[in-house]
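U., I forgot to send this yesterday:
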Amino acid sequence: MKRLTILLLFFLLASLFSGCGSKKPSSSENSAIAVEVVTVTMTDMNKFYNTSGKIEASAKATIAPKVTGRVAEVNVKLGDRVEKGQVLFQIEAKDAYNQLTQSRATLGMSQVSYDSAVQALKDAQANYDRYNALFESGVVSKNDLEQATTKLVNAQLSLEQCRQQINKDQATLDTAQDNYYDYSVTAPIAGLIGAVNVENGGMVSSQTDTAIIVNIDTVKVEASVPESVVNAIKPGTNVSITIASLNKSVEGTVTAVAPKADSTTMGYPVEVTIANPDGEIKPGMTVKIDLLTGALQKIIAVPVDAVIEQDGQHIVYIVEDSKAREVYVETGVSNNSQIEITKGLEEGQSLVVQGNRRLSDEQQVKMVTKQEGDSK
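Result:
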């Protein structure tokens, strides 16, 4: 019994000493929430008009042959890259080739006749010169000279007829040549084959859309903007383009601003071009566009996430004496990252930018300065 009493006394003393050696945290320390803060300052902020649109190819060509015939050979397939002038497919051209050959032969014969007429004119000229000299010497009669003159005039007329015939036959040859070339259907632009609607042995005509070529080395997107901002958008301005399907943002350039509103939407079309060397951006993709419309100077602007909308009003939290204080603010313009505060904040205040959605008024906080990243 005495031994049991000693053991109980030992454990009691040990627990007392251990309790004296540790300090229980205060309830206020346990409830403090870590927040990131920034110092409110005057700054400049760009103004943007946010809109959306769909990507289009910078150039597109729908191919239809100029002649009717049966396809002899198709040289391309979907997705192929082609150069301007490259033969896409060949139409059977036997009749056109025969016509071309005949036209060449006809022109050749006309050229021979022309050469003969040139020589005949030289001979007639020489004969006339000789008779004219003899007539002046009194050796030949006036009748003989008139006959020589008639031969000279006839030779000149014959040469002119041969010249006109050559021109006519050359025009016929040019037409036959163009007609023959039309049986080789070529690419009017460089780009990628977007569609092929023809196959070997199939019949085609000028009413047949046989292929589509798109050039996406650069792409474009057309946006519509209201009259309130159209005059602030200038060609040559860089534009931020967000492509959700690719999970990326790229830079484009305003290349055109319409001088008149669209009669249907009453908005002003704005064209933006985007470099696309890898072909990753495809026509039809939906994008978001941030068009720069101006800038505000020396204003209070804070991160968008710092402002909480509550019951139709906007609040922020500032830190004073290690406590969060709820402040109602009035806002102005905003962009993707910042929002203007027109009333409610002053320079130098510590604004909560992270952790604010867990706070309530007078909440105990532990500050982390965002710029420096060290705990306070």
